[in-house]
Amino acid sequence: MTVLEARDVVSGYGEVEILHGVSIKVEEREIVTIIGPNGAGKSTLLKTVFGLLPCKRGAIFLDGENVTGQPPQALVRRGMCYVPQSDNVFPTLTVQENLEMGAFIRRDNYRAKIEEVLALFPDVIERRHTRAGKLSGGQRQMLALGRALMLEPRLLLLDEPSASLAPNMVQLVFAKIQDINRSGVSIVMVEQNARESLKLSHRGYVLAMGQNRLEGSGESLLESEEVGRLYLGD
Ligand SMILES: Nc1ncnc2c1ncn2[C@@H]1O[C@H](COP(=O)(O)OP(=O)(O)OP(=O)(O)O)[C@@H](O)[C@H]1O
Ligand SMILES: [Mg+2]
Known about the structure:
alpha/beta; Rossmann fold; six-stranded mixed beta sheet; 36% helix; binds adenosine-5'-triphosphate; binds magnesium ion
C-alpha cells in the first residue's frame, strides 16, 4: 500500500519555481532516501509535501487520499510528521519541555508517551532537564526525532538527520531511524550521506535541478555509475 505519493509537484518560493514536476512514492514500511546536489530542491519537496509551501501544480496523496493544500496540522493529525533540516528543537527549553511541545495536539495523557520516547534514547534520558541548546549535535537530532515520535506518526519526513554529525553519531542516528522504521513507521529522508543512507533504504530517488533524475532500490543506486561518480566519491 502506498503511504505517500507526490505526483508531478510544481512548487517554489513566490514567483520562483524550484520543483518542475517532481514525483516520488513511499510504500508502507519503506525507508526512502532522496539525494541530489545542493539546491536540487530536496528540502523544498519535503516542505511542499508537509503543506509548508503551496503545491502549484500536481498533487499529494496520503494513504491514497488527495491532501494537496492541507496545512501541516491537518497532515499531522493524519499521521505525517516532519523534522526540518535545521532549528528542529527549541534550544532554550529542556529536553522534557521539547517533548511536551511535541505533544501539543495530543489530548490524552502524554506523560507515559514521554517516558516511552525517552526510553528509546538512553543517551538523552539522563539529560531530560538539560536545555536542548546544550546538547551535542547527535543528541539534538535524537531529540528532534523524539519530538516527532510524540505524535505517533505513521510517516516521517526527515531532512538531513545526519547532517554535521561525527561518523559514529551518524551510525547511531541511522540505527535509530531503522528501529523507528521497524516499529512500523514509513520514512522518507533527504541525505547528504548518500552511501550510508542508501545502504539502509529500500528505495531511493536522485533529484537534480528540481526534477527527477534517477530512482531505484537502495542497492541499485549504490551500484549506479552516475550515483557513484557524483554522490559517493567513487
Ligand atoms: N526561503 C527561500 N526563498 C527563496 N528561495 C529559496 C528558499 N529556500 C530555498 N530556496 C532556493 O530553492 C532552491 C532549492 O533549495 P532547497 O533548499 O530545496 O535545496 P536542497 O536540495 O535541499 O539543497 P541542500 O542540499 O543545500 O539542502 C535553491 O536554489 C535555493 O536557493
Ligand atoms: Mg536541503
